[in-house]
Design brief:
The chain has about 110 residues and is α+β, with helices and mostly antiparallel strands. The chain is built from 3 helices and 5 strands. The structure holds guanosine-5'-monophosphate (5GP) and zinc ion. Guanosine-5'-monophosphate (5GP) binds next to strand 2.
Length: about 110
């Protein structure tokens, strides 16, 4: 998607602080962090929302979670706890329409979220 912000980050057209990447997954720091660690984990392939996921995307979604876990573990924050969340569409607050797993760690989280 040529007009997608996260495809541009993936392609290096927009700078970001990339902290993890592999064949299928990319992770970079959120530009407006909501916790001491706030990382966005995305599939390299453009998928607009969770509503667009297909059965064959199941391994890819698993890879997002495994990448998130590795990042938090590598920072030594996993045992204290962390949050992983994916917003879908406007009512949930999705603003960038390329799916991304928010990974937040390093502070106490409250529930329910707003
Ligand atoms: P959403 O609201 O779609 O769930 O999350 C989008 C996230 O992308 C927000 O947390 C926002 O701070 C982040 N974001 C928006 N623009 C940029 C950008 O240009 N670079 C980075 N690294 N993050 C961005
Ligand atoms: Zn995209």
């Amino acid at each position: 998607m040529s007009d997608c912000l996260f495809c541009k980050i993936r392609d290096g057209e927009i700078p970001s602080n990339i902290i993890y990447e592999d064949e299928n997954v990319l992770a970079f720091e959120d530009v407006n962090p909501q916790a001491p660690l706030h990382v966005l984990v995305i599939p390299r392939r453009h998928i607009a929302t969770a509503n667009d996921l297909q059965a064959q995307d199941a391994p890819l979604i698993g890879q997002l979670f495994l990448a998130a876990k590795k990042i938090v573990q590598d920072r030594g924050l996993a045992e204290d706890g962390y949050r992983m969340v994916m917003n879908c569409n406007e009512q949930a607050g999705q603003t960038v329409f390329h799916i991304h797993l928010h990974v937040l760690a390093g502070r106490i989280m409250h529930w329910p979220p707003g």
